[in-house]
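Troubleshooting: if your tokenizer reports a length mismatch, compare your output against this known-good record of 388 residues.
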Amino acid sequence: MLFDRICRDNGITHRLTEPASPTTTGKVERFHGTLRRELLDDAEPFDNLLAAQAAVDTWVSGYNCDRPHQSLDMGYPADRFAPTQHARAAAEEVLPLRLPANLRPADCPQSCGEPHSATPVTSDQSVDVTRADAEVSPTPVAYRGGPVEFDRVVPASGNLAVRGKQFWLGPARAGVTVTFWANHDVIHLSIAGTRVKSVRSHLNSTDLAALAATGGRPAGPPPLPPAEPGSALEIDRLVARGGTVSLGNTIVLAAEILAGRQVTIRIEDATLMFFDPDTRELLRTRPNPLSWDQARKLRGARPAGPPPRPSVDPVTVYRRASNSGVIMVVGQKIALGRTHAHQELTVHVAEHTITVELDDGGHRTFRRTTTHPVRNRKAQKPPHTSAS
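Known-good structure output:
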């Protein structure tokens, strides 16, 4: 995750190959075969990891500097990849390297003409890890309070876990890196700089310190600025089966027709506006039973975006005609005649008209005489009749 963060900060795209597909990484697989054939196949077991690393470093130095390569017209890789200090400075001027606070770039490697060590390490030799050119890992920056940012990669299940809490992002986002901005009050989730979710924080100071110590970093400003007192707020909610949503300790009726639907609620001084989060199409309005102080403490509350707008398109519903050819739509009875009895009809409900599509391909339009909202889109099932 830290590697992906460094790549992203430096404008580098990290591409992954499919599992069990060595043909997509032919060059590195070819290098591994050469390393195995020329070094590992004839090497004695190494005493420790440091001895193994020293042997590999020595072989790599010879591979790049001392051994001619047929693919390079008997040249050396080091001769083909040796940027000058001027070229390095020019590259850094165009795209400077950005690293986390607890890392710093390594020194420029020495040239092949001046290797720091060309002597292989044998099994009876020890490695001096206190040599002058050894780099000492810097101490991670201690957590001193405040919000923390950290990255997580969405697993195949689409369900991320952070300090005992699940964050559902869906299998469609599997493999995507998510940036968390967290403090004691709220957690914002962002993908590629765009906020996708905000929830109430479950983290305490111990949790934030643990996250900071395992790849976290001091956070910058939150993805959303704090709301000004009295301004409109927005929250995301899933409408329950009965058409209600929970706002803290208050249950509010949205609409039965919205049951099971994800909606965004704009909380204004006296009004709740339920709208589609993707199109920002206004679905319902309700009186607001909450004060502004109560609303700002709701889970996932954030400053509101532009007001939603009502749809100008008619709402399509389906009705089954009665024995006498009558249907009921938005509290209004419409008589179509007995010739349409028991037929399932498509009805388009507009602001001032109701249009019924008939089975013969024609349609009939009626003036709308009520202001009731659409509560049910589907046709009612016919009553059950027992066999005689």
